[in-house]
Amino acid sequence: MMTDPTPYDRFRERYEGERVPWDDPLPPPEIVALAETLPPGRALDLGCGYGRVAIYLARRGWSVDAIDFIPKAIDIARQRAADAGVADRVHGHVASAADLPFLQPPYDLAVDIGCMHSFTEEMLAAYRAELVRLLRPGGQYVLFAHLRDEVVEGEEGPRGIPEATLRQLLEPLLSLERVEYGTTQVEDRPPWNSGWFWFRRR
């Protein structure tokens, strides 16, 4: 009997096949603009991929813990950090963003570009607990997520999270300061709804 691939399987296959459409040299402009307004501190890059956000922040003086559950992604992120001369400020960890007991607070900033929106309910609860534990009061959390009206079990296509679920999960503990909605298209797939969310730890 065949089983559906897990998120780990899907991402591992992408990295092994070098089908990584988010492999851009710079982070999204939303992150660049944010970094220009903040003094350097400690940051979390959750679902870091090849480390473009972590390396960009490190070049601006930040100390960054970069998290991804795909070993190849972390290997390449570490090499790119070394090539950029910031290996001492980018610390790559092979781990789930929902299970980070080896990290200690406080962090000033957490960034998630397309990681948590594919989590199960159980993982989302663990992710929130880690985020709240690690982020200092007043610290910022910036999230990019694929948004869906509802999640249909077994449906093919881009993963996503209903905005109502996202808000219910986070708003009791983090203040939502700003939202920007848009659409995103990856490769030849149809575009889907997406959003940038700027939160602050209560």
Automatic annotation (TrEMBL):
<dbReference type="InterPro" id="IPR041698">
    <property type="entry name" value="Methyltransf_25"/>
</dbReference>
<dbReference type="GO" id="GO:0008168">
    <property type="term" value="F:methyltransferase activity"/>
</dbReference>
<keyword id="KW-0808">Transferase</keyword>
<dbReference type="GO" id="GO:0032259">
    <property type="term" value="P:methylation"/>
</dbReference>
<keyword id="KW-0489">Methyltransferase</keyword>
<dbReference type="InterPro" id="IPR029063">
    <property type="entry name" value="SAM-dependent_MTases_sf"/>
</dbReference>
<dbReference type="Pfam" id="PF13649">
    <property type="entry name" value="Methyltransf_25"/>
</dbReference>
<protein>
    <submittedName>
        <fullName>Methyltransferase type 11</fullName>
    </submittedName>
</protein>
<feature type="domain" description="Methyltransferase">
    <location>
        <begin position="44"/>
        <end position="139"/>
    </location>
</feature>
